[in-house]
Amino acid sequence: MTTENPTPETMTSLWRMTGPRIETDDWRDGRADTVVVGAGLTGLVTAVLLARAGRKVVVLEARTVGAVTTGGTTGKLSLLQGTVLSDIRAHDGDDVLRDYVAANREGQAWLLREHEHWGIDVPRRRAIVYAADPSAVDALDEERSAALAAGLELGTTRSPDLPFETHGVLTLDGQAQLHPLTMLAAFARELRERGGRIVEHQRVRDVDVDSHEVVVSADGGMLAAENCVLATGTPILDRGMYFAKIEPSRSYAAAYRVAPGTAPSDMCVSVGDPPRSLRTATGPSGEEVLVVGGGGHVTGRSTDTAAEVAELDAWVREHFSVRERVALWAAQDYRSHSRLPFAGEMPWGRGRVHLATGYNKWGMTNGVAAALAITAEMLGGRMDWARAYHHDTIGLRTVADTLEVNIGAGLHAVGGRAAAALQPESPEPLGEGEGRVRYGGGRPVAVSRVNGELCAVSGVCTHLGGVLNWNRAERSWDCPLHGSRFTATGARLEGPAIADLEWRPLPDAEGGE
Questions:
Q1: CB 204 within 8 A of CB 216
Q2: d(CA 485, CA 479)
Q3: 187, 209, 213, 489: which is deepest, by most CB within 10 A?
Q4: Using an 8 Å Cβ cutoff, are 14 and 288 in contact?
Q5: Taking a C-beta distance cutoff of 8 angstroms, is the pair 187, 179 a contact?
Q6: Residue predicted with more confidence, 235 or 507
Q7: What is the DSSP letter of 508?
Q8: Per-residue pLDDT tens for 75-85?
Q9: Closest among 176, 51, 63 to 111, alpha carbons compared
Q10: What is the mean pLDDT of residues 341-368?
Protein backbone atom coordinates (compact mmCIF):
# COMPACT_ATOMS: atom_id res chain seq x y z
CA MET A 1 0.00 0.00 0.00
CA THR A 2 1.28 3.48 -0.83
CA THR A 3 1.67 5.74 2.19
CA GLU A 4 2.16 9.40 1.40
CA ASN A 5 3.02 10.41 4.95
CA PRO A 6 5.81 8.15 6.27
CA THR A 7 5.67 6.67 9.75
CA PRO A 8 8.11 4.38 11.57
CA GLU A 9 5.84 1.46 10.72
CA THR A 10 5.92 2.18 6.98
CA MET A 11 9.64 3.03 6.82
CA THR A 12 10.95 -0.48 6.20
CA SER A 13 13.60 -1.18 3.60
CA LEU A 14 12.83 -3.28 0.55
CA TRP A 15 15.57 -5.68 1.64
CA ARG A 16 13.97 -6.30 5.01
CA MET A 17 10.61 -6.83 3.33
CA THR A 18 11.96 -9.38 0.85
CA GLY A 19 14.97 -10.89 2.65
CA PRO A 20 15.18 -14.26 4.38
CA ARG A 21 14.80 -14.85 8.10
CA ILE A 22 18.18 -14.82 9.84
CA GLU A 23 18.72 -17.25 12.70
CA THR A 24 20.57 -15.93 15.73
CA ASP A 25 21.55 -17.13 19.20
CA ASP A 26 20.74 -16.48 22.85
CA TRP A 27 23.13 -14.74 25.23
CA ARG A 28 25.55 -17.09 26.92
CA ASP A 29 28.23 -16.17 29.44
CA GLY A 30 31.71 -17.30 28.63
CA ARG A 31 34.81 -16.39 26.69
CA ALA A 32 35.57 -15.87 23.01
CA ASP A 33 38.68 -15.32 20.96
CA THR A 34 37.08 -12.25 19.36
CA VAL A 35 33.95 -10.21 20.06
CA VAL A 36 32.62 -8.34 17.02
CA VAL A 37 30.28 -5.46 17.80
CA GLY A 38 27.77 -4.85 14.99
CA ALA A 39 26.05 -7.34 12.68
CA GLY A 40 26.18 -5.44 9.41
CA LEU A 41 28.34 -6.32 6.42
CA THR A 42 31.71 -5.40 7.98
CA GLY A 43 30.93 -7.17 11.23
CA LEU A 44 29.73 -10.42 9.68
CA VAL A 45 32.49 -10.59 7.05
CA THR A 46 35.08 -10.00 9.79
CA ALA A 47 33.47 -12.69 11.95
CA VAL A 48 33.36 -15.22 9.09
CA LEU A 49 36.99 -14.60 8.11
CA LEU A 50 38.12 -15.10 11.71
CA ALA A 51 35.96 -18.23 12.08
CA ARG A 52 37.54 -19.65 8.92
CA ALA A 53 40.91 -19.13 10.60
CA GLY A 54 39.72 -21.20 13.58
CA ARG A 55 38.83 -18.34 15.92
CA LYS A 56 35.89 -18.57 18.32
CA VAL A 57 33.78 -15.50 17.49
CA VAL A 58 30.75 -13.87 19.10
CA VAL A 59 28.89 -11.07 17.31
CA LEU A 60 26.86 -8.68 19.47
CA GLU A 61 24.21 -6.55 17.77
CA ALA A 62 22.30 -3.77 19.56
CA ARG A 63 19.23 -4.19 17.36
CA THR A 64 18.90 -6.92 14.71
CA VAL A 65 21.15 -8.20 11.92
CA GLY A 66 21.36 -5.55 9.19
CA ALA A 67 19.12 -3.14 11.11
CA VAL A 68 21.21 -0.05 10.42
CA THR A 69 23.33 0.94 7.42
CA THR A 70 23.64 -2.40 5.60
CA GLY A 71 19.90 -2.94 5.76
CA GLY A 72 19.34 0.58 4.43
CA THR A 73 21.88 0.67 1.61
CA THR A 74 20.91 0.75 -2.05
CA GLY A 75 23.15 -2.29 -2.53
CA LYS A 76 25.31 -1.10 -5.42
CA LEU A 77 28.63 -2.95 -5.76
CA SER A 78 30.56 -0.50 -7.90
CA LEU A 79 34.00 1.00 -8.41
CA LEU A 80 32.42 4.06 -10.03
CA GLN A 81 31.32 6.03 -6.98
CA GLY A 82 30.10 9.49 -7.89
CA THR A 83 33.01 11.89 -7.38
CA VAL A 84 34.71 9.91 -4.60
CA LEU A 85 37.90 9.23 -6.57
CA SER A 86 38.56 12.85 -7.50
CA ASP A 87 37.77 13.91 -3.94
CA ILE A 88 40.31 11.43 -2.51
CA ARG A 89 42.88 12.51 -5.11
CA ALA A 90 42.47 16.18 -4.14
CA HIS A 91 42.83 15.43 -0.42
CA ASP A 92 45.38 12.61 -0.41
CA GLY A 93 47.18 12.31 -3.76
CA ASP A 94 47.59 9.66 -6.43
CA ASP A 95 49.39 7.01 -4.38
CA VAL A 96 46.64 6.89 -1.76
CA LEU A 97 44.01 6.98 -4.52
CA ARG A 98 45.53 3.91 -6.16
CA ASP A 99 45.48 2.06 -2.83
CA TYR A 100 41.82 3.00 -2.36
CA VAL A 101 40.84 1.68 -5.79
CA ALA A 102 42.86 -1.50 -5.23
CA ALA A 103 41.06 -2.02 -1.91
CA ASN A 104 37.67 -1.56 -3.53
CA ARG A 105 38.59 -3.94 -6.37
CA GLU A 106 39.55 -6.56 -3.79
CA GLY A 107 36.35 -6.02 -1.80
CA GLN A 108 34.21 -6.26 -4.92
CA ALA A 109 35.94 -9.37 -6.27
CA TRP A 110 35.82 -11.13 -2.89
CA LEU A 111 32.11 -10.50 -2.46
CA LEU A 112 31.32 -11.67 -6.00
CA ARG A 113 33.24 -14.89 -5.37
CA GLU A 114 31.23 -15.49 -2.21
CA HIS A 115 27.95 -15.09 -4.09
CA GLU A 116 29.16 -17.50 -6.76
CA HIS A 117 30.08 -20.01 -4.05
CA TRP A 118 26.61 -19.68 -2.52
CA GLY A 119 24.96 -20.11 -5.92
CA ILE A 120 23.25 -16.72 -5.62
CA ASP A 121 22.80 -14.93 -8.92
CA VAL A 122 24.18 -11.38 -8.95
CA PRO A 123 22.73 -9.08 -11.63
CA ARG A 124 25.57 -7.37 -13.48
CA ARG A 125 24.93 -3.80 -14.52
CA ARG A 126 26.66 -0.86 -16.11
CA ALA A 127 27.32 1.86 -13.56
CA ILE A 128 26.91 5.46 -14.67
CA VAL A 129 27.54 8.82 -13.08
CA TYR A 130 25.71 11.69 -14.76
CA ALA A 131 25.85 15.46 -14.44
CA ALA A 132 22.42 16.59 -13.29
CA ASP A 133 23.09 20.23 -14.16
CA PRO A 134 25.65 22.08 -16.34
CA SER A 135 27.71 23.17 -13.33
CA ALA A 136 28.57 19.52 -12.62
CA VAL A 137 30.31 18.81 -15.95
CA ASP A 138 33.74 19.85 -14.65
CA ALA A 139 33.32 17.44 -11.74
CA LEU A 140 32.86 14.58 -14.22
CA ASP A 141 36.06 15.56 -16.01
CA GLU A 142 37.95 15.51 -12.71
CA GLU A 143 36.50 12.10 -11.83
CA ARG A 144 37.49 10.66 -15.19
CA SER A 145 41.04 11.98 -14.73
CA ALA A 146 41.26 10.53 -11.21
CA ALA A 147 40.00 7.15 -12.40
CA LEU A 148 42.64 7.03 -15.13
CA ALA A 149 45.36 7.90 -12.61
CA ALA A 150 44.20 4.90 -10.56
CA GLY A 151 44.14 2.56 -13.57
CA LEU A 152 40.37 2.53 -13.97
CA GLU A 153 39.12 2.94 -17.55
CA LEU A 154 35.80 4.80 -17.73
CA GLY A 155 33.60 5.17 -20.78
CA THR A 156 31.28 8.01 -21.77
CA THR A 157 27.91 8.23 -23.47
CA ARG A 158 25.65 10.99 -24.69
CA SER A 159 22.50 8.87 -24.59
CA PRO A 160 21.94 7.31 -21.17
CA ASP A 161 18.73 5.35 -20.65
CA LEU A 162 17.12 8.06 -18.50
CA PRO A 163 13.85 9.98 -18.88
CA PHE A 164 15.34 13.36 -18.01
CA GLU A 165 18.07 15.65 -19.28
CA THR A 166 21.71 14.97 -18.40
CA HIS A 167 24.78 17.07 -19.15
CA GLY A 168 27.50 14.44 -19.35
CA VAL A 169 27.90 10.79 -18.37
CA LEU A 170 30.70 8.48 -17.18
CA THR A 171 30.23 4.71 -17.44
CA LEU A 172 31.82 1.53 -16.11
CA ASP A 173 30.69 -1.89 -17.30
CA GLY A 174 30.53 -5.09 -15.28
CA GLN A 175 29.42 -3.73 -11.91
CA ALA A 176 26.76 -5.44 -9.78
CA GLN A 177 23.70 -4.90 -7.62
CA LEU A 178 23.10 -6.95 -4.49
CA HIS A 179 20.37 -7.89 -2.04
CA PRO A 180 21.99 -6.91 1.28
CA LEU A 181 19.86 -9.08 3.59
CA THR A 182 20.25 -12.21 1.45
CA MET A 183 23.99 -11.65 1.66
CA LEU A 184 23.96 -11.15 5.44
CA ALA A 185 21.86 -14.29 5.88
CA ALA A 186 24.46 -16.35 4.02
CA PHE A 187 27.30 -14.98 6.15
CA ALA A 188 25.31 -15.52 9.34
CA ARG A 189 24.57 -19.10 8.39
CA GLU A 190 28.24 -19.90 7.72
CA LEU A 191 29.39 -18.23 10.92
CA ARG A 192 27.00 -20.29 13.02
CA GLU A 193 27.93 -23.48 11.17
CA ARG A 194 31.56 -22.77 12.12
CA GLY A 195 30.67 -22.44 15.79
CA GLY A 196 30.30 -18.67 15.97
CA ARG A 197 27.36 -16.98 17.63
CA ILE A 198 25.25 -13.90 16.80
CA VAL A 199 23.33 -12.35 19.66
CA GLU A 200 20.81 -9.61 18.87
CA HIS A 201 19.44 -6.90 21.22
CA GLN A 202 22.77 -6.68 23.04
CA ARG A 203 23.94 -3.10 23.27
CA VAL A 204 27.62 -2.85 24.14
CA ARG A 205 28.24 -0.24 26.82
CA ASP A 206 32.03 -0.39 27.24
CA VAL A 207 35.20 -2.27 26.35
CA ASP A 208 37.88 -2.53 29.03
CA VAL A 209 41.37 -3.37 27.81
CA ASP A 210 44.49 -4.60 29.56
CA SER A 211 47.65 -6.33 28.35
CA HIS A 212 46.02 -9.78 28.46
CA GLU A 213 42.42 -9.41 27.26
CA VAL A 214 39.41 -7.22 26.59
CA VAL A 215 36.21 -7.34 28.61
CA VAL A 216 33.11 -6.32 26.68
CA SER A 217 30.19 -5.06 28.78
CA ALA A 218 26.80 -5.56 27.14
CA ASP A 219 23.18 -5.64 28.24
CA GLY A 220 23.36 -9.39 28.91
CA GLY A 221 26.55 -9.26 30.94
CA MET A 222 30.27 -9.35 30.22
CA LEU A 223 32.35 -11.31 27.73
CA ALA A 224 36.12 -11.70 27.91
CA ALA A 225 38.11 -12.10 24.70
CA GLU A 226 41.52 -11.63 23.18
CA ASN A 227 40.28 -8.97 20.73
CA CYS A 228 37.30 -6.77 19.95
CA VAL A 229 36.24 -5.35 16.59
CA LEU A 230 33.92 -2.32 16.49
CA ALA A 231 31.90 -2.52 13.27
CA THR A 232 29.19 -0.08 14.32
CA GLY A 233 29.10 2.60 11.62
CA THR A 234 30.76 5.05 13.99
CA PRO A 235 32.79 3.75 16.95
CA ILE A 236 30.87 3.58 20.23
CA LEU A 237 34.12 4.28 22.11
CA ASP A 238 35.50 7.82 22.10
CA ARG A 239 39.15 6.72 22.16
CA GLY A 240 40.78 8.20 19.11
CA MET A 241 38.11 10.91 18.79
CA TYR A 242 36.69 9.35 15.63
CA PHE A 243 33.36 11.10 16.17
CA ALA A 244 35.25 14.35 15.42
CA LYS A 245 36.96 12.89 12.33
CA ILE A 246 33.79 11.87 10.50
CA GLU A 247 30.60 13.60 9.45
CA PRO A 248 27.27 11.71 9.63
CA SER A 249 24.74 12.01 6.84
CA ARG A 250 21.22 10.67 6.52
CA SER A 251 19.42 9.97 3.26
CA TYR A 252 16.24 8.29 2.04
CA ALA A 253 15.39 5.62 -0.48
CA ALA A 254 12.14 4.30 -1.88
CA ALA A 255 11.08 1.45 -4.16
CA TYR A 256 8.39 1.99 -6.80
CA ARG A 257 6.38 -0.15 -9.14
CA VAL A 258 6.63 1.62 -12.49
CA ALA A 259 5.26 0.90 -15.94
CA PRO A 260 7.00 -2.13 -17.50
CA GLY A 261 10.10 -1.24 -19.49
CA THR A 262 10.44 2.29 -18.09
CA ALA A 263 13.03 1.69 -15.34
CA PRO A 264 16.63 2.35 -16.42
CA SER A 265 18.76 -0.75 -16.89
CA ASP A 266 21.87 0.97 -15.47
CA MET A 267 22.85 1.74 -11.88
CA CYS A 268 22.94 5.53 -11.76
CA VAL A 269 24.33 8.20 -9.45
CA SER A 270 24.04 11.93 -10.09
CA VAL A 271 26.53 14.75 -9.60
CA GLY A 272 24.96 18.14 -9.00
CA ASP A 273 21.36 18.92 -8.11
CA PRO A 274 19.22 17.06 -7.42
CA PRO A 275 21.39 14.28 -5.93
CA ARG A 276 19.87 10.95 -6.92
CA SER A 277 20.73 7.24 -6.92
CA LEU A 278 18.82 4.74 -9.12
CA ARG A 279 18.81 0.97 -9.60
CA THR A 280 16.32 -1.83 -10.18
CA ALA A 281 15.50 -4.64 -7.76
CA THR A 282 12.96 -7.40 -7.18
CA GLY A 283 9.84 -6.28 -5.32
CA PRO A 284 7.71 -8.03 -2.69
CA SER A 285 5.65 -9.85 -5.35
CA GLY A 286 8.60 -10.82 -7.51
CA GLU A 287 8.12 -7.90 -9.88
CA GLU A 288 10.81 -5.47 -10.98
CA VAL A 289 10.84 -2.23 -8.98
CA LEU A 290 12.79 0.99 -9.29
CA VAL A 291 14.84 1.99 -6.23
CA VAL A 292 15.60 5.71 -5.95
CA GLY A 293 17.69 7.39 -3.25
CA GLY A 294 18.13 11.04 -2.31
CA GLY A 295 17.34 13.66 0.30
CA GLY A 296 20.81 13.55 1.83
CA HIS A 297 21.63 15.90 4.70
CA VAL A 298 23.88 16.10 7.74
CA THR A 299 22.12 14.10 10.43
CA GLY A 300 20.06 16.29 12.74
CA ARG A 301 20.38 19.42 10.60
CA SER A 302 17.50 19.15 8.15
CA THR A 303 14.78 21.69 8.80
CA ASP A 304 12.09 19.24 7.67
CA THR A 305 12.93 15.62 6.86
CA ALA A 306 9.36 14.87 5.78
CA ALA A 307 9.77 17.54 3.11
CA GLU A 308 12.96 15.79 1.95
CA VAL A 309 10.97 12.58 1.47
CA ALA A 310 8.13 14.42 -0.28
CA GLU A 311 10.60 16.06 -2.68
CA LEU A 312 12.15 12.69 -3.55
CA ASP A 313 8.72 11.17 -4.11
CA ALA A 314 7.60 14.06 -6.30
CA TRP A 315 10.76 13.86 -8.43
CA VAL A 316 10.23 10.15 -9.11
CA ARG A 317 6.58 10.68 -10.01
CA GLU A 318 7.53 13.53 -12.35
CA HIS A 319 9.99 11.44 -14.36
CA PHE A 320 8.63 7.89 -14.16
CA SER A 321 5.23 6.30 -14.64
CA VAL A 322 4.74 5.31 -10.99
CA ARG A 323 2.02 2.82 -10.19
CA GLU A 324 2.75 2.39 -6.49
CA ARG A 325 5.39 3.09 -3.88
CA VAL A 326 6.07 -0.21 -2.16
CA ALA A 327 8.82 0.68 0.32
CA LEU A 328 10.38 3.71 1.95
CA TRP A 329 13.37 3.78 4.25
CA ALA A 330 16.42 5.72 5.46
CA ALA A 331 20.06 5.02 6.19
CA GLN A 332 22.98 6.73 7.89
CA ASP A 333 26.49 6.97 6.49
CA TYR A 334 29.74 8.53 7.65
CA ARG A 335 32.37 10.40 5.63
CA SER A 336 35.83 10.93 7.08
CA HIS A 337 37.44 14.33 6.69
CA SER A 338 40.35 12.67 4.89
CA ARG A 339 37.76 11.10 2.52
CA LEU A 340 39.22 7.66 3.33
CA PRO A 341 37.72 4.92 5.47
CA PHE A 342 39.40 3.97 8.74
CA ALA A 343 40.08 0.28 9.36
CA GLY A 344 42.60 -0.97 11.86
CA GLU A 345 43.74 -0.71 15.47
CA MET A 346 42.05 1.84 17.70
CA PRO A 347 44.40 4.19 19.61
CA TRP A 348 44.90 3.24 23.26
CA GLY A 349 43.47 -0.20 22.58
CA ARG A 350 46.78 -2.02 23.19
CA GLY A 351 46.44 -3.66 19.80
CA ARG A 352 43.33 -5.52 20.97
CA VAL A 353 40.56 -3.19 19.74
CA HIS A 354 39.97 -2.64 16.01
CA LEU A 355 37.47 -0.45 14.24
CA ALA A 356 36.04 0.39 10.83
CA THR A 357 34.17 3.54 9.80
CA GLY A 358 33.90 6.27 7.18
CA TYR A 359 32.67 4.45 4.04
CA ASN A 360 31.04 7.57 2.58
CA LYS A 361 27.98 5.70 1.21
CA TRP A 362 30.03 3.02 -0.57
CA GLY A 363 29.97 0.30 2.07
CA MET A 364 29.47 -2.71 -0.20
CA THR A 365 33.06 -2.55 -1.43
CA ASN A 366 34.62 -0.61 1.45
CA GLY A 367 32.95 -2.69 4.15
CA VAL A 368 34.44 -5.90 2.78
CA ALA A 369 37.84 -4.29 2.17
CA ALA A 370 37.84 -3.02 5.77
CA ALA A 371 37.05 -6.51 7.07
CA LEU A 372 39.84 -7.99 4.95
CA ALA A 373 42.28 -5.35 6.22
CA ILE A 374 41.35 -5.82 9.88
CA THR A 375 41.50 -9.61 9.82
CA ALA A 376 44.83 -9.57 7.96
CA GLU A 377 46.20 -7.27 10.64
CA MET A 378 44.87 -9.51 13.42
CA LEU A 379 46.13 -12.73 11.84
CA GLY A 380 49.57 -11.45 10.88
CA GLY A 381 48.93 -11.03 7.16
CA ARG A 382 49.72 -8.10 4.89
CA MET A 383 47.83 -6.28 2.16
CA ASP A 384 49.67 -3.35 0.62
CA TRP A 385 46.49 -1.51 -0.33
CA ALA A 386 45.39 -1.52 3.32
CA ARG A 387 47.80 1.37 3.95
CA ALA A 388 44.99 3.70 2.87
CA TYR A 389 42.76 2.27 5.63
CA HIS A 390 45.21 1.79 8.47
CA HIS A 391 46.25 5.38 9.13
CA ASP A 392 44.90 8.90 9.02
CA THR A 393 46.14 10.81 5.98
CA ILE A 394 46.34 14.42 7.08
CA GLY A 395 46.78 17.17 4.52
CA LEU A 396 45.95 20.85 4.57
CA ARG A 397 42.54 20.28 2.95
CA THR A 398 41.76 17.55 5.49
CA VAL A 399 42.69 19.81 8.41
CA ALA A 400 40.57 22.63 6.98
CA ASP A 401 37.59 20.33 6.48
CA THR A 402 37.93 18.90 9.98
CA LEU A 403 37.99 22.38 11.50
CA GLU A 404 35.04 23.53 9.40
CA VAL A 405 32.85 20.56 10.32
CA ASN A 406 33.68 20.65 14.02
CA ILE A 407 33.22 24.40 14.26
CA GLY A 408 29.83 23.83 12.63
CA ALA A 409 29.02 21.17 15.21
CA GLY A 410 30.02 23.54 18.00
CA LEU A 411 27.79 26.28 16.63
CA HIS A 412 24.89 23.83 16.50
CA ALA A 413 25.55 22.89 20.13
CA VAL A 414 25.40 26.51 21.27
CA GLY A 415 22.65 27.48 18.87
CA GLY A 416 20.50 24.53 19.80
CA ARG A 417 20.44 25.47 23.46
CA ALA A 418 19.70 29.08 22.62
CA ALA A 419 16.88 28.06 20.29
CA ALA A 420 15.37 25.80 22.94
CA ALA A 421 15.53 28.58 25.52
CA LEU A 422 14.02 31.20 23.22
CA GLN A 423 11.42 29.06 21.45
CA PRO A 424 8.06 30.75 22.03
CA GLU A 425 5.29 28.80 23.66
CA SER A 426 2.77 27.68 21.09
CA PRO A 427 -0.93 27.69 21.92
CA GLU A 428 -1.37 24.85 19.41
CA PRO A 429 -1.04 21.30 20.76
CA LEU A 430 1.39 19.00 19.02
CA GLY A 431 -0.16 17.13 16.14
CA GLU A 432 0.43 13.48 15.37
CA GLY A 433 4.04 12.88 14.35
CA GLU A 434 5.25 16.29 15.55
CA GLY A 435 7.96 17.15 18.04
CA ARG A 436 9.65 20.23 19.51
CA VAL A 437 12.25 21.10 22.14
CA ARG A 438 11.21 23.25 25.08
CA TYR A 439 12.98 24.49 28.18
CA GLY A 440 11.66 22.84 31.32
CA GLY A 441 13.30 23.04 34.72
CA GLY A 442 16.16 25.03 33.18
CA ARG A 443 17.09 22.39 30.60
CA PRO A 444 15.96 21.32 27.11
CA VAL A 445 13.04 18.90 27.04
CA ALA A 446 12.13 17.01 23.85
CA VAL A 447 8.37 16.64 23.51
CA SER A 448 6.64 14.62 20.80
CA ARG A 449 3.34 13.01 19.94
CA VAL A 450 3.52 9.55 18.31
CA ASN A 451 0.56 7.20 17.93
CA GLY A 452 -1.49 9.62 19.99
CA GLU A 453 0.85 9.50 22.99
CA LEU A 454 2.49 12.67 24.28
CA CYS A 455 6.01 11.94 25.46
CA ALA A 456 8.78 14.05 27.06
CA VAL A 457 12.43 13.05 27.30
CA SER A 458 15.70 14.88 27.78
CA GLY A 459 16.43 17.11 24.81
CA VAL A 460 20.18 16.67 25.21
CA CYS A 461 22.17 13.94 23.48
CA THR A 462 23.79 11.51 25.89
CA HIS A 463 27.04 11.54 23.91
CA LEU A 464 28.40 15.11 24.16
CA GLY A 465 25.35 17.17 25.04
CA GLY A 466 24.05 18.35 21.68
CA VAL A 467 20.47 19.66 21.66
CA LEU A 468 18.37 17.26 19.64
CA ASN A 469 16.22 18.00 16.59
CA TRP A 470 12.98 16.28 15.67
CA ASN A 471 13.11 14.09 12.54
CA ARG A 472 9.52 14.28 11.30
CA ALA A 473 9.95 11.65 8.59
CA GLU A 474 11.23 8.99 10.97
CA ARG A 475 9.75 10.29 14.21
CA SER A 476 13.09 10.26 15.97
CA TRP A 477 15.30 12.67 17.89
CA ASP A 478 18.54 13.28 15.97
CA CYS A 479 21.71 14.96 17.24
CA PRO A 480 23.21 17.61 14.92
CA LEU A 481 26.68 17.22 16.43
CA HIS A 482 27.78 13.65 15.71
CA GLY A 483 24.68 11.85 14.44
CA SER A 484 23.34 9.92 17.44
CA ARG A 485 19.64 9.10 17.09
CA PHE A 486 16.89 8.16 19.54
CA THR A 487 13.27 7.05 19.37
CA ALA A 488 10.46 9.34 20.54
CA THR A 489 10.55 7.51 23.88
CA GLY A 490 14.31 8.03 24.22
CA ALA A 491 15.72 4.63 23.23
CA ARG A 492 19.08 4.91 21.49
CA LEU A 493 18.99 3.93 17.80
CA GLU A 494 22.51 4.55 16.45
CA GLY A 495 25.54 6.80 16.54
CA PRO A 496 28.31 7.28 19.12
CA ALA A 497 25.90 7.62 22.06
CA ILE A 498 25.50 4.46 24.15
CA ALA A 499 22.91 5.62 26.71
CA ASP A 500 19.18 6.27 26.27
CA LEU A 501 17.52 9.62 26.91
CA GLU A 502 15.98 10.06 30.34
CA TRP A 503 12.26 10.70 30.76
CA ARG A 504 11.20 14.22 31.74
CA PRO A 505 7.98 15.78 33.07
CA LEU A 506 5.93 17.51 30.40
CA PRO A 507 6.60 21.28 30.34
CA ASP A 508 3.65 23.46 31.33
CA ALA A 509 3.21 24.65 27.74
CA GLU A 510 2.60 21.05 26.64
CA GLY A 511 0.06 20.17 29.27
CA GLY A 512 2.42 19.41 32.15
CA GLU A 513 1.95 20.55 35.68
A1: yes
A2: 6
A3: 187
A4: no
A5: no
A6: 235
A7: G
A8: 999 999 999 99
A9: 176
A10: 95
